[in-house]
Fold this protein.
Amino acid sequence: QEPSSKRVKTLKKSVASFANLISPGKPSRTSKIQHSNGVNAGSNPGSGSTPGKRTNSGSVTKNRRSKLWCETFDHQGVEDKELKRQETMFELYQGECDVVDDLRLAKQTYRDSMMTLKMLSEEESTRIFGKLDCLLPLHENLLQHLEAQRNSDGKCDAIGHVFLSWFPTLTPYDEYCANQADAKGTLDSVVEREARVRDFLQRCLESPFSRKLDLWSYLDLPRSRLVKYPLLLKNILKATPPEHPDAIQLEKALAMVNDVITRVDDLTGERQSQLIINKLDFLDEKQRCPELEQSRSVICSGQLKSSRGTKLQVFLFDRVLVLARNVTRHDKSYQVYRQPLALSSAVIEPDEGGRLSGSFRGGILSGDKAKYAFRVRSEDTGFGYTLIAADEHDRKQWVNSITEAAAKCRSRRTSSAD
């Protein structure tokens, strides 16, 4: 068993030497900060992302070498099946060690240092780091219980019961994950505004302790770890004989964590949806359609152009498609462009080439640009919009996302009518 005190001492050593990173002079204006993805790919209001198009982002496991159980403990005489089972449980344990170390790093090296150096106000710190203080003790507690299950020979007989007791304590995850869209937006705003913050984070990024990961990679760690538990438990269950007492416990734990993820997912979607709605500036009260108020999640968002070349920020909610323009007015970020289109009556016309370009004289739909255009219209009212994507990949992703969302809305409407 590896004593957790060793990890704490190592972390404290890196934090103690952290003062050497702080620039005594003026921050460099040329330093660039690494930007990462938002909370959910394609749905962060500030990311300008396109549905289904992923950008490279660092994993918090970067530059870490995973230890194997067989490299840590004597495995002579252990059968292959049992060896595999011990390896899957040890993989989960090793990952939990890393989570605890990274959460301590986010708390001590980033948040505490930035507050000590007065780089953040209390409000900014709360909005960016959220309930980080509540999450660290949860994972420390899980790590202690996992270590307690290990016998003197390094084997673990069972761990399913540990998670059955631990998963019900994850209520702080609700607020932490639901706050991530606001946290990312606040962090980006501070980084853009404050040169000292950019300098500080750049120096962290270039230091060995960060493993070349930016602050957001660490703040996004709890969410990414939560959604990984089902896979980790499935691997352990797969390596566990059906007759083993832990098999039933693992199945129950797997069902429990999936319920937790669904709950957190729903709450996060609602919070993100409301966050964007609050940033919309309506020129006409008629634009405040019921479908927008009823929306509970943002499926994706990104930039498209109108048939006349107007740059638009497009939000695909679960019940309505909203076109907007970037503005700064009355603390709003987006001005609603035309009437939002209810998905329950939306249909896609993915026409290409001359058929579309010939229909819009005076617009920019011609040549190659027409190939990336599609039209969405309402079957109820007949009005619609022609939108132009950056490339064929984007066009297909938008068409597929809108089509799927519209189908779900029509299904809900049919079920309600029945």
